[in-house]
């Protein structure tokens, strides 16, 4: 197939390029040309900024593709741009959305695609609105939506469900023996998806007619407690893991816009398996090992940063609180 990938040089979109080439497709990318990641010589590049609609429209005008893979559609305006530019000129479009479109209210697990979309953040609301634009335009541009959660693999920072989130200094913290501050002690479930599995799911839906006009979860093969995610990283580094627990309700009182991180993120993949005959296969351990190898080879800015004063103070308060509670429980209880 003749594919256009909007993005093409980022953490996820570069995997779309790699997997598309490996599957024998002809690939063109639209990129601003600002990323340092190398582009394969047989990939055609179109330099354009999708946030500059006239420039973007001019760059793709008159071009036709079997499919468009949009890895950087973040707003309904950008979704309308896709419809305007590719209706009648692309056979299919796949948008990479996010699990942040879902409500954070308690619900049965694993979460299906039919779960309530009531995003608590502007990012999630914009993604949901972009989904609606594309799915509403299926009559003129056949679209499929994919919703990944935390994405892992070579080229990305690690960390989720913690005070720091994606953290360039995480390997250094672990090597220094510092406790990692995890929400609810790392009990929240997470189902990270490897960047290559997401790319392969994109290609799978392109050849599955029943996926037209639908949205699908795409996550990793299994959901694990966040603590297990960090334990696998520590095991790969050959160091112990020490955890400090930060109650998620306390965290959300300080950071209400991070509500999508402070919940279970475990998803049903049955619909994607049924309609596209695809299930993710890359083990979390493999993804984390590859990510750590990449970070070792290409240390990001802040890789050796010490804990901030705020982090150190929060850790001290949590440790003191735990000690006080333990001391009280060890004393005779009042009746």
Assign an overall shape: globular
Reading off the top of the CATH hierarchy, the class is best stated as: Alpha Beta
The end-to-end distance, rounded to whole angstroms, is 74 Å
Mean pLDDT equals 95
Q: Biggest β-sheet: count, sense, barrel?
A: 7 strands, parallel
The structural class is alpha/beta
| Gyration radius over CA | 21 Å
Q: Helical stretch count?
A: 11
Helix content: 25-40%
What order do the helices and strands follow?
A: EHEEHEHEHEEHEEEHEEHEHHHH
CATH architecture: 3-Layer(aba) Sandwich
Q: Indicate the proportion of strand residues.
A: 15-25%
Under CATH, the topology can be stated as Rossmann fold
Q: How many runs of DSSP E, i.e. beta strands?
A: 13
Q: Which residues sit in consecutive blocks of at least 5 with pLDDT less than 50?
A: none
Strands ordered across the widest β-sheet: 3-2-1-4-5-6-11
Count structural domains: 1
Detailed description of the structure:
With 335 residues, the chain is an alpha/beta fold. It contains eleven helices and 13 strands. It has one domain: NAD(P)-binding Rossmann-like Domain (Rossmann fold, 3-Layer(aba) Sandwich). It has helices spanning 13-22, 53-60, 76-86, 122-136, 170-175, 195-206, 226-237, 248-254, 270-276, 284-297, 309-329, and strands at residues 2-6, 26-31, 44-47, 65-70, 90-96, 143-147, 151-152, 180-183, 189-190, 193-194, 214-217, 224-225, 243-246. The longest helix has 21 residues, at 309-329.
């Amino acid at each position: 197939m003749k594919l256009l990938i909007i993005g093409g040089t980022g953490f996820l979109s570069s995997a779309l390029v790699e997997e598309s080439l490996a599957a024998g497709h002809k690939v063109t990318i639209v990129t601003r040309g600002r990323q340092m990641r190398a582009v394969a010589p047989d990939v055609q590049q179109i330099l354009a900024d999708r946030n500059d609609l006239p420039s973007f429209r001019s760059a793709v005008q008159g071009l036709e593709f079997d499919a468009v893979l949009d890895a950087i559609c973040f707003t309904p305006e950008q979704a309308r741009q896709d419809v305007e530019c590719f209706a009648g000129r692309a056979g299919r479009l796949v948008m990479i959305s996010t699990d942040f479109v879902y409500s954070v209210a308690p619900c049965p697990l694993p979460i299906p695609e039919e779960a309530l979309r009531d995003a608590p953040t502007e990012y999630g609301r914009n993604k949901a609105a972009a989904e609606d634009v594309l799915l509403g335009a299926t009559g003129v541009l056949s679209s499929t939506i994919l919703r990944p959660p935390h994405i892992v693999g070579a080229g990305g920072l690690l960390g989720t469900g913690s005070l720091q989130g994606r953290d360039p200094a995480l390997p250094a913290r672990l090597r220094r023996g510092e406790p990692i501050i995890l929400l609810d002690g790392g009990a929240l479930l997470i189902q990270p998806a490897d960047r290559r599995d997401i790319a392969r799911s994109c290609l799978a839906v392109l050849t599955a007619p029943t996926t037209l006009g639908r949205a699908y979860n795409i996550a990793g093969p299994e959901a694990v407690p966040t603590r297990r995610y960090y334990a696998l990283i520590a095991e790969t580094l050959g160091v112990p893991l020490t955890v400090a627990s930060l109650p998620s309700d306390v965290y959300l009182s300080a950071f209400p816009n991070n509500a999508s991180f402070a919940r279970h993120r475990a998803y049903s993949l049955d619909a994607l398996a049924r309609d596209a005959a695809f299930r993710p296969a890359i083990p979390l351990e493999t993804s984390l090992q590859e990510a750590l190898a990449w970070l070792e080879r290409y240390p990001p800015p802040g890789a050796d940063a010490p804990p901030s004063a705020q982090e150190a103070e929060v850790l001290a308060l949590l440790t003191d609180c735990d000690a006080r509670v333990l001391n009280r429980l060890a004393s005779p209880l009042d009746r």
